[in-house]
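wait is this the right file?? whatever heres the structure
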């Protein structure tokens, strides 16, 4: 007879856990559109304005962003005097379709605002990346660091051990998920990583490992940080007093991370309930 109460108690505990975690910080669209960094070529297009190929590329990318989170393509030259233009976009793996499309549109509209008529422009927003470059533009290594930022102060107690554990989970998970996106949480440290959409699992894992090494060197014991390499990036935040209810980078990312972690926790809780129920049935059978 003790089996049913135990099952009910376990179910109640899981339900209570759900109530606690199912109210993440509010997600602000403004957070998605905030500029993280920009990269602009020094060379500009002749005539002081981008050619029609850039507009054609933008149109193609905008169309694809309605149904995909990663896409890259080229726009063919319209005359012998113009060059082909390559471009891509990538949205963070936890964005909805509409949010991805809106973010890509905002990033592409920022090309001219932030870079003018440059022959190459790269705009990274919190929610997405969009870039274009003329054919033959010099390339950098996929693990070249493009941008980093670190929080102020330092984590308390065993923060760095917690962060390193979260980083290990990123390194193990990012190369095994669709789109190279992975988010995790470990004892108040929330972290996520993403690779460029067409990287192989091996290359993605290698890139994330490089990003982790950069952030450990660049940010030391800082309680938050972001490191963007050419083909991947990682971010992390530490909330020793619980996840704050607010916008900003931490709130935006943590809302998504908590939701992902919640899914795994609920699955585990459901499994526990099932096992307890099965055990109670076996015990009843033995009693008879």
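ok assuming it is, sequence goes like this
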């Amino acid at each position: 007879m003790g089996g049913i109460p135990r099952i009910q108690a376990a179910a109640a505990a899981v339900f209570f856990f759900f109530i606690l975690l199912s109210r993440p910080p509010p997600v602000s669209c403004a957070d998605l559109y905030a500029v993280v960094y920009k990269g602009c070529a020094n060379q500009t297009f002749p005539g002081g304005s981008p050619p029609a190929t850039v507009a054609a590329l933008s149109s193609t990318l905008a169309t694809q962003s309605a149904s995909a989170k990663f896409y890259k393509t080229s726009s063919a030259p319209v005359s012998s005097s113009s060059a082909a233009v390559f471009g891509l976009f990538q949205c963070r793996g936890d964005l909805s379709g509409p949010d991805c499309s809106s973010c890509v549109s905002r990033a592409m509209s920022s090309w001219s605002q932030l870079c003018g008529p440059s022959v190459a422009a790269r705009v990274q927003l919190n929610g997405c990346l969009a870039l274009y470059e003329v054919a033959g533009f010099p390339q950098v290594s996929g693990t070249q660091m493009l941008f980093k930022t670190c929080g102020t102060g330092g984590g308390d107690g065993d923060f760095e051990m917690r962060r390193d554990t979260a980083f290990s989970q990123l390194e193990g998970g990012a190369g095994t998920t669709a789109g190279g996106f992975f988010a995790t949480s470990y004892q108040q440290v929330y972290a996520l990583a993403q690779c460029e959409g067409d990287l192989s699992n091996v290359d993605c894992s290698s890139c994330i490992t490089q990003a982790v090494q950069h952030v450990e060197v660049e940010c030391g014991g800082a309680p938050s940080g972001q490191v963007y390499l050419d083909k991947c990036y990682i971010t992390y935040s530490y909330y020793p007093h619980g996840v704050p209810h607010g916008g900003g980078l931490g709130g935006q990312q943590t809302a998504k991370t908590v939701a992902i972690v919640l899914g795994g926790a609920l699955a585990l809780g459901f499994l526990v309930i099932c096992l307890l129920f099965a055990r109670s049935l076996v015990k009843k059978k033995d009693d008879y």
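Residues 4-28, 246-278, 281-285 have pLDDT under 50 and may be disordered. so i think its the right one actually
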